[in-house]
Amino acid sequence: MSLFSSKTELGVVFHIGSASVGAGLVRFTKGAAPQVIFTVRELLSEKATSSKDAERLLSQMIAALERANERIIHEGASHLKFTEFGGLKVKRVMHIFSSPWSVTQTRVVSIDEETPFELTEALIEKIAQDVGGVANEIAKELTIIERKVVQITLNGYELADPYGKKAKSAQISIFMSLVPNMVLEKVRQITIAAFHPKGTNAHTLALASFSTIRDTFQTAPDFLYLDIGGELSDVAVTKDGLLLESASFPAGRNTIVSAAAKAFATSPEQASSLIRLYEEGKLDDTTKEKVRPVLDEAGENWMKSLSDALTRLSDHVSLPKESYAVIDGDLLPFFMRTLSAGSFSPTLVSADRLKDSVSFSEHAEKDAFIAIASAFAARAYDMI
User: Fold this and answer.
1) Which of 3, 6, 167, 298 would be a feasible disulfide site paired with 259, CB 3.0-4.6 Å?
2) pLDDT band at 84, cuts 50/70/90?
């Protein structure tokens, strides 16, 4: 049953990343792909994102969220037809969190008995609830926003349909995502005050991206997913159509920009422009020769961080060959070139590649993260 009260409703989706907050005003229509009416992306300050001061980073994120809300209310609403929805009446809101605002982990529960026992759905649900309860008790300042059984083995063998089967041993792998209580509560308070929606939902970009890639692309059941953010990047492993493991590493767009800014003693803005001009082949030969080694070194360092994250993941699960990537900001050509040079050629998940799952109006800038969030929200709200 749809969570919306009528055939067409307004919603707002948010992507809360490590260096920016994005928001999209979305028209959801039952049985059709969602349409993004208006988008906005508010940057966190360079000093805040590079700082290890958690309170300062949270303050900057909240300020960016409030600015995004104001622009949705004043600029986004202006693109609605005069009679449409009777004004800016937002019914549903979804927050999609990237690192460092969310953490994911996979817990494995083992059962060993002397006599065979029957595995039932009720038993698995109890185990999942117990694991969630223990996780909440250990980390009282975190809230579980996602909890999913991703793998079950009986007597050492993985079964597609384990329920009703008897075994002496079982291993149940449970994937969980958690967000700090303070972050989740503050984000919800600000959103409710701005839009007065019927309800809000929270998910991670890892789950939203996995679901969107699985439902949109003709993909193999095993693949890697890479999210290159502002300050951080995440990589996740999907096996047999299930999201199993993920890892985060502290290197993203801003890492590259900072390296260039330091090398040329310039501002981050000028460094970003220099990188773009280099990738577009618009620099003179002399400048190009100065920029090349700086970017090559920055790219090699970033690839080393990615390789280390993949090594950590490979300790738990074999790594698939197929891969997908969503890349934050204006350094997309740099990262695609760097990945290719490192023998890593992911399929780019862009707004254009998701055009069958989500459309953008002429007033909305195409934002890959908002496209993913909108497509995921439509399915979560049972609008597709």
Assistant:
1) 298
2) low
Tens of pLDDT, residue by residue over 137-171, are 555 788 889 888 877 889 988 877 888 999 999 98
- CATH classification of the domain holding 259: 3.30.420.40
* 249 and 329 inside one domain: yes
DSSP label of 231: S
Classify residue 84 by its DSSP letter: G
CA-to-CA distance for 19 and 64, rounded, in angstroms? 10
Residue 171, CB half-sphere, CA atoms under 13 Å: how many? 10
Domain that holds residue 304: 223-348
Rounded to whole angstroms, the Cα distance separating 160 from 257 reads 46
Who has greater pLDDT, 239 or 298? 298
344 lies in the same domain as 354? no
User: pLDDT by residue (tens digit) across 98-116?
Assistant: 999 998 877 788 899 999 9
* Residue 2 lies inside a defined structural domain of this protein: no
* Residue (of 322, 313, 360, 334) closest to 22 by Cα position: 360
At residue 380, φ and ψ (nearest 5 deg) are -65, -35
The reply to whether 246 falls in a domain is yes
At 38-64, the pLDDT tens digits run 999 999 876 655 556 788 899 999 999
Asked whether residue 3 is assigned to any structural domain, the reply reads: no
Average pLDDT, the chain: 88
**Residue 150's pLDDT is what?**
75
* Distance between CA atoms of residues 311 and 241, nearest Å: 21
Output the six-digit token pair for 252. 């993203």
Question: Does residue 231 share a domain with residue 265?
Answer: yes
Cα separation, 235 vs 326, in Å, equals 11
Angle at 33 between CA 324 and CA 361, to 5 degrees: 90
Q: Check whether residue 90 and residue 206 sit in a common domain.
A: yes
Separation of alpha carbons 55 and 152, rounded Å? 40
pTM of the predicted protein model: 0.86
Q: What is the dihedral of CA 321, 100, 209, 235, to 10 degrees?
A: 0
* CA-wise closest residue to 203 among 354, 81, 93: 93
pLDDT band of 318, cuts 50, 70, 90: confident
Does residue 1 fall inside a structural domain? no
